Amino acid sequence: MSAEKIIPGCVPRHVAIIMDGNGRWARKRGLPRTAGHAAGAETYRRIATACSRRGIEYMTVYAFSTENWKRSGEEVSAIMGLLKKYLLEAISSMERENVRLRVLGDTSVLSPELRELIARTDEISGHLTGMWANLCVNYGGRDEIVRACRAWAEDPEREPLTEKVLSRYMYGPDIPDPDLIIRPSGEYRLSNFLTWQSAYSELYFTDVLWPDFTEEELDRALAAYARRDRRFGGVKQ
Ligand code: FPP
Fold first, then answer.
1. Please, how many CA atoms are within 13 Å of residue 179, restricted to the half-sphere of its CB?
2. Does 22 participate in catalysis according to the annotation?
3. Which ligand 1 atom lies nearest to the CA of residue 62?
4. Handedness of CA 36, 118, 189, 9 (dihedral sign)
5. pLDDT, average across residues 53-81
6. Domain made up of 14-226: CATH architecture
7. Which of 97, 141, 175, 210 could join 192 via S-S bond, C-beta 3.0 to 4.6 A?
8. Range 148-177 burial, b when 16+ CB lie within 10 A, else e
9. Given ligand 1 and candidates 18, 22, 28, which is best to mutate, with the most ligand atoms within 8 Å of its CB?
10. Is 134 annotated as catalytic?
11. Per-residue pLDDT tens over the stretch 1-48
12. pLDDT tens digit string along 144-186?
């Protein structure tokens, strides 16, 4: 644990992270962008372990957006390769670490191999109790909302439309909304990440590039969160 003080009872239940800055991290070192993603995947492993140790119940990361297909074939394959490597590792480590894994997004276009690995991690998660590590893959916030509306409209047993009802058709209907969304790399936007679920999330931005994001950075974000005054549109008692 780092020096930053974590206030008991103020740890967010759900932390979501936009893992941004991998490309710039690599460029600064004269390396290919793919090296930045490989470093970013390492950071993800460290921060997921740190979140689990801090009692965070859900950690959701943006690993590949519906817009990321616009990148070069080489970069897309490299990210898919890193996902495969991570899923393979997870299959052998998640029981020991008691971490549950879930992929959110349209997985139908992923390779059969990746889909098989996802099915295997789903199966293992079914008998675990620890932190949920959610990976958003081929995920877009607006796309998720449109799909939810379509699924509701096509459901013969649909109930009258309310926010609560539509939430049931999102990728992770049982996942609480993120309390805290962290975006590193000095960009101040959400980029189509958890568009529906982020309505009342606290946002934390830092200039650090994702591969350089440390446990200390995480604790700074958690400490900032603990100082926020969340009113959800109400007034303080
Ligand atoms: C954004 O940085 C990052 C991505 C689009 C990909 C993130 C993917 C990984 C870290 C690897 C796979 C994930 C796991 C969990 C194994 P960017 O490329 O847009 O950075 P830039 O803005 O500096 O160019």
1. 20
2. no
3. 7
4. negative
5. 98
6. 3-Layer(aba) Sandwich (3.40)
7. 141
8. beeeeeeeeeeeeeeeeebbebbbbeebeb
9. 22
10. no
11. 555 555 666 899 999 999 999 999 999 999 999 999 999 999 999 999
12. 999 999 999 999 999 999 999 999 999 999 999 999 999 999 9
Atom of ligand 1 nearest to the CA of 33: 18
Annotate 106-140 with DSSP letters as a single string: -GGGS-HHHHHHHHHHHHHHTT--S-EEEEEEEE-
Tokens of 169: 């058709």
Quick one: which atom of ligand 1 is closest to the CA of 210? 2
Asked whether residue 216 carries a pLDDT value surpassing 90, the answer given is yes
Query: Distance between CA atoms of 98 and 113, rounded to whole angstroms?
Result: 24
Dihedral of CA 207/209/210/211: which sign?
negative
The answer to whether the beta carbons of residues 44 and 134 sit under 8 Å apart is no
Which of 191, 187, 203 has the alpha carbon at shortest distance from 143? 191
Ligand 1 geometric centre to CA of 9 (Å): 32
Sheet holding 14-18, edge to edge: 100-104, 132-139, 58-65, 14-18, 180-183, 202-205
Residue 21 in contact with ligand 1 by CB distance below 6 A: yes
Indicate which residue's Cα is closest to atom 8 of ligand 1.
Answer: 63
Domain ranges of the chain: 14-226
